[in-house]
Amino acid sequence: MANLQEIPLGGADQDYNSVRSRQGVTNLLAEGDVKGTYRTVKDAPGLTTFSTLASGAGRSNLFVNSGFMYAIAGTDLIRTDEFGTTTVLGSVGGSGRGQIFSNAVPGDNQIMVLNGIGQGFVYTNGAGLVQVTDVSFFSTVSGSVLGERGWFARRGTNEFFGSDISDFTTYNPLTFATAEQNPDEVVAVIAKKSALWIGGGKSFEYWQTINNDTLPLRAVIGASKERGITVAASLAEAGERFAWFADDNTVRMIEGSQMTKISDLDFELKVRGDGTPDFPGFAVTDDAVGFFVDGPVHKIYYLSFPTEQFTWGYDFSTGLGHQRASGNLGDQFWRVGAVALFNNKLYGLDVTEGFIYELDQGNKTENGAIMRRVLTCPSISAPYDWTLPYMELDMEVGAVTDPTLKPVMRVEYSKDGGYSYTTWGTISLGNFGDRRKRVPMRLFGRITRHKDFIPRFTVTDDVQVQMYTLWADIEPDA
Predict the structure, then answer these.
(1) Domains, the chain, ranges and CATH?
(2) Backbone phi, then psi, for 19, in 5-degree steps?
(3) pLDDT tens digits along 269-301
């Protein structure tokens, strides 16, 4: 094995003329060096049931307020306490993606609920759930809070409007404005610091607060961003940043006043496509849903396309993308569609069934179902014919606590750049009590010059894994 070489597990170095775009991880989190090369790949958290929602699947953000989590499940507004006990607060009807937020002013306990079809409801402990009936409250699916007012995108127009101060139930007919710097339909609004960003179909406008009792906002000329939002539900925020699915089928992020494209080649080839049969792009993107997992280490924006069965995540902590997938075959979009930090733990709302989960780093299943973890490495190629008699994967395996469990990893490889894969077989990840760190694999055969060899590793057993380095014995043919 004189030619044993280190093969990167993956990385951010990709270009449109390379099959390296087929590298990536699913249900794993990568940590890289300054160049974006993966230095380690470890498990993403599994899902442990925290609460069962009799009303049905979730379809909103998971909103934390005054010691409770709120969400829309089915057609009901529900509230869950610290013990996982869920109470139905009333029906809001509607369909599609809803939104929940509050004024967050001390002593003001109004919670605003948008039901996904344009209607609004306000919940308070005293009055319960009440529909907003003010004639100046217009159809909307996107709102935010700035200056103790609710601000909303008016559907089908280039207008946005606001509520009275500290009252989501009353609206002044003069508290509205039109986004006119780049005239387009207003899709979503989001407040950051002392400003309101107005997301249109082709641009984002920046409106700053001013001292005015009727319309306390003014547009800042020259501060617009020339990328719009097509799906309001794709907009999500964490801290001072927010991200969305843009009008050019990329993912954009604004932090402060700076807009950045965060989608990678893998995402863009899969979603936008390149006009070839290999990458046709998605036919349906108007059901996209975005949300953040704002963890202590990994701060991730996720974007799901339910019709296309695909979930992509961008980790702001590492600058690397990955995928999440549910289902025994790992061929479904991630069942979690909203995440919130509650009592120092992360909880996720299931948008396929009626559950709230704890995101549990110690659980390698999704509520008992298989969580399929997949690492697809970058391609290996050479300008000559070569043979691969041996590979070795340095990895750590969490000790198996069940003496009857014999965990294995499936090994596959492609010799055509990732278009098709051959199963090499399975290899043991150790027995009861093992923490094995070196996995040898032999006899992968001959690879023709300029052809791309891609290894792929899959773990489905309930055992912790962390991968470090792949080594390959590349032997040129005589």
Answers:
(1) 4-44+374-476 (2.60.120.260), 47-369 (2.130.10.10)
(2) -75, 0
(3) 899 988 888 789 999 999 999 999 998 888 999
